[in-house]
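Example protein as discussed:

>
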Amino acid sequence: MKKQNRIIKPAKALSGTISIPGDKSVSHRSIMLSGLANTSVTINNFLHAQDCLSTVACMKAMGVNVEIVAGSQQLKVTGNGLFGLQEPTDILDAGNSGTTLRLLSGILAAQPFFSVMTGDASLRKRPMGRVITPLSQMGARIAGRESARYAPLAIMPPNGSLQGIDYIMPVASAQIKSAIMLAALFANSPSRITEPYPSRDHSECMLESFGVPVARSGNTVIVNPVKELNAPTVLDVPGDISSAAFWLVAATIIPGSEITLTGVGINPTRTGILDVLAEMGADIAVKNQRWSGKEPIADITVRSSDLKGVTLDVEIIPRLIDEIPVLAVAALFARGKTVIRGAEELRVKETDRLAAVAAELGKLGAQLEETPDGLVIEGPQKLNFAQCHSHDDHRMAMAAAVAGLASQGVEIIEPDCVAISYPDFYTVLEALRMHSR
């Protein structure tokens, strides 16, 4: 059946109060670690989106009991202990989820059974060698296409226990770091992982919630092997700031708008979007700060305001890597030049996001310079109605929708990929428009 395009009409203003769906990164980690525990864990505000459900399916295939509570964003998970995973009878399918494939590689590398993991066409093009290299140094036995650079990956039992590792990462990546940390739980000695710049630390927070002692020193994290996990009875997943980013930008650039976002995760390793928008001149108030387990959360109110161009350098990129497509939209409405550097990691996401941002916003009439590691955008610019392709990339689809809302509208090809991280995105968009003044 032919997929339907979606037309986003311009909005006069946006207003309302909305709850942000559960953080995708935290949801992945919550189901993985709960599945390695031997007591029942209730996960609240779990993100029931395609990527996270891929992780659920993989864990269930290895004997973890997962009950999805009907009509709620809640899971009840009961594992068989740290060493209780069972050999899957079929290939594990990570779908479009790089987090599923990379993090589970760390867990599976230590298991005494054979497993194979794959994903969709997009995921099979994403580099896996950066994870396989450190895991192999720990003693993992992993084979894959082009010398394990790409999935499918076949993972054999190690010869004995995995070895602890002292690894200096060539790039700042939470997925690489997390894969090593998860493998380190099963190793015979501590592991030290050092990044060039800090990436998101949800794995560190989640491991601590499960009683794993994690030492942090600058850009280095040290994980000791454990015999079992001390699981909490309840985990609350914060709202995803990467999903909130689309509304933060939309309300900022559409005159007369005011939106309050409730329960948003404000982990300092993820709040680059707030820092950059504040530097650009956005009117953002962070209120009612509190804790959700080891994760800080807050309510955020954003009002429309005039923006100015800024420069983003490599140090901040790991803290807002997923938000760059929508920040590029914000830059089109800002006075002056915005320069984004050090973001070459975007070329190996669901699509080459730097090329996709330049091409698709260009169809709306935007003038952008694509550089090897970023973008240069001079604003403000006037955008026209056009047809844009999502490249089947959820963040591209939502960034295009924000651009259309703030200008003359847009028609999105393959719009339904938003289900990867934000299934209700278009419903929320229309609700905010309906309540606009």
